[in-house]
C-alpha cells in the first residue's frame, strides 16, 4: 500500500436476492520511517583481492516505498550507483576506503553506517608454491 491508498472502501457481492454492498470502512495508510538500514559485502567483511569483484548490498528492514538508493565513497564526490546493490568489477588499489548508501522514500532520507573495504595486495600465483 502507499499513502494515496487511504480513503473509504466497501465491497459488494451477489447474494441470493441480488447485489449487496457493505458498509463503508475508512482505511488510513500511515508512513513508516526508514528503519534498519544495513550494508553487506561479498566477499564478506569487505576484504577483496586486487582485480577481483566486490558486491555491496544495501538493505532496508522497514520503510514506505518506493525507495531510492544512492552509493557513496569517502574519496569521491560523485554518485557511484543508484540501486540496492553496487558491483565493482576488477577493484584497484584506489578502491579501498569507506562506502555507504543513502536511501530515500520521498519524504525521509537515511544513511547507512559506513562499510570499510580493503583491497588486498596483488595475487601471486607462485606464492607458496613448491619450487
TrEMBL record:
Coiled coil: none
Organism superkingdom: Eukaryota
Signal peptide extent: none
Domain Ig-like: 46-118
SUPFAM superfamilies linked to this entry: Immunoglobulin
Protein name stated in the entry: FCRL2 protein
Organism the protein comes from: Rhodinocichla rosea
Gene, per the UniProt record: Fcrl2_1
Amino acid at each position: 500500500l502507499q499513502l494515496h491508498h487511504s480513503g473509504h472502501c466497501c465491497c459488494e457481492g451477489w447474494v441470493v436476492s441480488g447485489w449487496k454492498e457493505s458498509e463503508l470502512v475508512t482505511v488510513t495508510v500511515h508512513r513508516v520511517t526508514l528503519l534498519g538500514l544495513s550494508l553487506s559485502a561479498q566477499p564478506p567483511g569487505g576484504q577483496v583481492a586486487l582485480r577481483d569483484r566486490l558486491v555491496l548490498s544495501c538493505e532496508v528492514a522497514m520503510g514506505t516505498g518506493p525507495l531510492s538508493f544512492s552509493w557513496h565513497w569517502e574519496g569521491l564526490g560523485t554518485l557511484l550507483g543508484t540501486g540496492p546493490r553496487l558491483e565493482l568489477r576488477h577493484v584497484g588499489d584506489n578502491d579501498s576506503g569507506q562506502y555507504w548508501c543513502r536511501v530515500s522514500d520521498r519524504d525521509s532520507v537515511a544513511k547507512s553506517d559506513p562499510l570499510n573495504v580493503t583491497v588486498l595486495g596483488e595475487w601471486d600465483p607462485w606464492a607458496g608454491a613448491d619450487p
